[in-house]
Amino acid sequence: QNWEARLLLERSCAVKCPDIATQLAGTKKVQQELSRMGVLEMLLPGQPETVARLRATFAGLYSLDVGEEGDQAIAEAIVAPSQFVLKPQKEGGGNNLYGEEMVQALERLKDSEERASYILMEKIKPEPFGNCLLRPGSPVQVVQCISELGIFGVYVRQGKTLVMNKHVGHLLRTKAIEHADGGVAAGVAVLDNPYPV
């Protein structure tokens, strides 16, 4: 039903925010495909330095499609669950699976085609730092934290003509290191401000 509504919108003359191509470009599956060897080279021909700089920022993203590659990714994650995160094709916090919960899900999914609706990602391990977390109605917590920086951009095009593509802001979410998943709305993270050094 959601996809039928989306198809109706895409066929209309209405301004789409985002249009289907832009929405799909941000999905985890597309991110995983972009990380495959040869894809960036095809999209950025003759720019090996740019490709190398981009690829250096990627965490490992592994397909769980049925087949040898997916079987190998599942086996590696079951053996070393602390190194991976299992991500469904959903946005928002609280959907990712870690540790023993991830292992149980992989054991359940490993012989099912449903596994293709997930990707396995190398776990990013940022350097923790001390910070104060302040939430309404709660005492201040001084704890070890990690942060995630999101960059907002505006991208507008008319047909194939680029009208605008620029940075318009950021959001820094900070949470205590004991929380594996969850954002501000879930009550796990707090809004923060970057302090450039």
TrEMBL record:
Listed pathway(s)? Sulfur metabolism; glutathione biosynthesis; glutathione from L-cysteine and L-glutamate: step 2/2
Q: Give the EC number(s) under which this enzyme is classified.
A: 6.3.2.3
Name listed for the protein in its UniProt record: Glutathione synthetase
Q: Name one GO molecular function term.
A: glutathione synthase activity
- For this UniProt record, give its keywords in alphabetical order, as a comma-separated list: ATP-binding, Glutathione biosynthesis, Ligase, Magnesium, Metal-binding, Nucleotide-binding
Similarity field: Belongs to the eukaryotic GSH synthase family.
Q: Which Gene3D superfamilies match?
A: 3.30.1490.50, ATP-grasp fold, B domain (3.30.470.20), Glutathione synthase, substrate-binding domain superfamily, eukaryotic (3.40.50.1760), Glutathione Synthetase, Chain A, domain 3 (1.10.1080.10)
> Which major enzyme category is it?
ligase
User: Which Pfam family is an annotated match for this chain, by its short name?
Assistant: GSH_synth_ATP
Tell me the subunit arrangement. Homodimer.
This enzyme catalyses:
gamma-L-glutamyl-L-cysteine + glycine + ATP = glutathione + ADP + phosphate + H(+)
Q: Which InterPro entries match?
A: Glutathione_synthase (IPR005615), Glutathione_synthase_a-hlx (IPR014042), Glutathione_synthase_C_euk (IPR014709), GSH-S_sub-bd_sf (IPR037013)
Cofactor(s) it depends on:
Mg(2+)
Q: Which organism is it from?
A: Canis lupus familiaris (Dog)
